[in-house]
Amino acid sequence: MDLILRCPHCHGESLLTVDAQGEAVSCGLCDRLLFEYELASERCGVVYVLSNEEFPGLVKIGCTKRAAAQRAQELNSQTGVPGILVVEAYWRVDDPFESERLIHERLATQRLEGKEFFRMSVAAATQSLADAFGAAPTFSRSASAGLGSQSAGSGPTYPSVDWRSAK
Predict the structure, then answer these.
(1) What digits encode the pLDDT tens for the residues 136-167?
(2) In angstroms, rounded to a whole number, what is the distance separating the alpha carbons of residues 75 and 143?
(3) Environment class of residue 5 by beta-carbon count within 10 Å: exposed (0-12), middle (13-18) or buried (19+)?
(4) What is the dihedral of CA 117, 120, 122, 128, to 10 degrees?
(5) What's this model's pTM, rounded to 2 decimal places?
């Protein structure tokens, strides 16, 4: 697939051919970095933490093979839910459905029965998942969680959970 990109700095156009190697894309005219990308494997996805200011003390922990923001937008488009769900953090993982199942099992005592909602703060949820994955989130909205986010150019990370300590 070929994409034409317009540089926000010099307004020149660059042709991007997406191949099997993730890479950085720079402007062909001014040589400024436009963005970095990587290709996702068919199995990879994300496990995310969402919050809603209308429900303090509750977080939604789920997974998707799409972008976490897309999933939040999809959930926000459903009627009858006050407020909006906000992506607080997410981790890229090799097997999002199995990772989600095991995280839900690990946090069973905080889980609302039959739901993907948990009685815990955003910081506690983010820390619990970081501990389980043994890695900082790929994205974290709040620096106050003390976890930071993956730095640009550090390459893909697909953490797995040490489930021997899951219970």
Answers:
(1) 999 999 843 444 444 333 444 445 555 444 44
(2) 25
(3) middle
(4) -100
(5) 0.67
**Among residues 94, 91, 99, which one has the least CA distance to residue 149?**
91
Our count of domains for the chain comes to 2
123 and 86 assigned to the same domain? yes
62 with 104, same domain: the answer is yes
Strands (DSSP E) along the chain, which ranges?
Answer: 2-6, 13-17, 23-26, 33-37, 45-52, 58-64, 85-93, 117-119, 139-140
**Partners of 77 in the beta sheet?**
none
* C-beta of residue 99 within 8 angstroms of C-beta of residue 151: no
